[in-house]
Amino acid sequence: MSATCENIRDLLVEHLAHELDRFRASGVEAHLAGCAACRAEERELRATLLLLSEDAVPDPGERYWDSFAGRVRTKIASRPEPRRRGFTLPRFALAASLLLVTIVAVRAPRITIDSEEEDSLLASILPLDPAALEESIGELSGEEGDRFEQHLVALGRRATPSPTPTPAPASTGKEKKEKAKPAFDPAPTQSRLQDDLSDLDELSPEELDRLLEHLDAMKT
Amino acid sequence: MEDAELIDRARAGEGRAFDDLIRLHQRSVYGLAMRFVRDHDEADDIAQKTFVRAWDRLKEFEGRSSLKTWLLTICANLCRNHHRDRKRFVDVAPESVEPAEEAIGAQRLERERRLEGVKEAVAALPERQRLIVELRVYQGLAFKEIAVALSTSENAAKVNFHYAVKTLRAKLGDAAASLASGER
Q1: Size of interface A-B (CB pairs under 8 A)
Q2: Which residues contact A96 (CB under 8 A, 6 or more apart)?
Q3: Is the interface score ipTM higher than 0.85?
Q4: How far apart are CA B141 and CA A65, in angstroms?
Q5: Which of A28, A185, B148, B160 has its CB 3.0 to 4.6 Å from that of B65, i.e. a possible disulfide?
Q6: What would the pLDDT profile of B2-42 be if each residue is shown by its tens digit?
Q7: Contacts 24+ apart (CB under 8 A), A51-56
Q8: Over the stretch A40-61, which tens digit does the pLDDT of each residue have?
């Protein structure tokens, strides 16, 4: 079998299925006209397709076809209702909760400290002398002093304070200074400080400014 | 009435339009299912499921293929699932050949035997080739439509069909050769 015959035979099925373009179809026909072997091959393939088409499906009859659509409709009507996508009560509740959380998150006052401010704070706090630190706390108001104490605990500059049994009726920062001095960690690790600095986010901008002013004043 | 108009009306909830669509395509769908499962009751079940699924998904029909191709795609997928569920193709029991008159008996017997060989040869094809033969020979789909129906390329559909016909010719050798010589 020549290379041409091989190429033509590869096209015979498509030719018989009328799927070749006019140019290739005429090439196949020209070859078949002069090649008995390929003609025989084409005849057998044609006969195969003819055999296939002889295999007709038995017709179930007109009565079957007449009732078919009705049976499909009955089947559609009798099956369980497909689940609809939409807002059911739990979905609505979930969506409402998410919306509420988003609104609160967006509208809540936030203080952001950029890395420069964090560095400035760290540089201010780390070299402070413990006595100077205590003095600066004494200058704060009672509430400010309490909050600053909490931040120092968080920063590792204070041990966790033990709960006081009877709080003083009018506590001031100076009174705090006279209380038992908490243990002081002289070398808090940088990473711990970095981790704990996130607590400074809780300060209001005014508190943060005052804290920085105090720390600057102490350094000088 | 055109498919497109019936589809629009059926989408709008007009049951009568969907009935008309069913009537237009019920034979094609049933024919594909019947060839696949070779059992009337099972073919009927698959054909009904095809139209139920079509009703559910009518809004998703984008018109990238003809409605017939879309329905045959649904049907072919159901046939495949059926095949996987059953893990076998249904062997076709030879149809009983009624005793015929002497004059036509031999000829008829010969034809029955030949058809039996065709069914067995087609059933032995790989699933993809078999579907392509069904869609091409019995449903008359173009290879472009077959490609859409089976999520393949047009060229792959042609190549598969080519190999399927060559395999069938090899299996049906004598029958095809005798039919071919009779044609000469």
Answers
A1: 104
A2: none
A3: no
A4: 22
A5: B148
A6: 788 889 898 888 889 999 999 999 999 999 999 888 899 99
A7: A51/B114, A51/B118, A51/B168, A51/B172, A51/B175, A51/B176, A51/B179, A52/B118, A52/B122, A52/B133, A52/B137, A52/B138, A52/B168, A53/B137, A53/B138, A54/B111, A54/B114, A54/B115, A54/B118, A55/B35, A55/B115, A55/B118, A55/B119, A55/B122
A8: 889 888 888 888 888 888 899 9
The pTM is what?
A: 0.56
- CB of A31 closer than 8 Å to CB of A4: yes
Nearest to A49 among B15, B30, B137 (CB): B137
* DSSP character string of chain A: --HHHHHHHHHHHHHHTT-S-HHHHHHHHHHHHH-HHHHHHHHHHHHHHHHHHH-PPPP--HHHHHHHHHHHHHHHHHSPPPPPPS--HHHHHHHHHHHHHHHHHHHS------HHHHHHHHHHHTT--HHHHHHHHHTS-HHHHHHHHHHHHHHTSSPPPPPPSS--TT--HHHHHHSPPPP--SS--HHHHHHHGGGGGGS-HHHHHHHHHHHHHHH-
Using the 8-state DSSP alphabet, how is residue B63 labeled?
Answer: S
Q: Which residues, in sequence order, are CB contacts of B2 under 8 Å at separation 6+?
A: none
Distance CA A136, CA B137 (A): 95
| Contact between B179 and A17 using a beta-carbon 8 Å cutoff | no
Amino acid at A121: L
d(CA B82, CA A34): 48
Answer yes or no: are the C-beta atoms of B184 and A43 closer than 8 Å. Answer: yes
**Residue positions counted in chain B:** 184
Mutate to test the interface with A, among B57, B71, B169 (most CBs of A within 10 A): B169
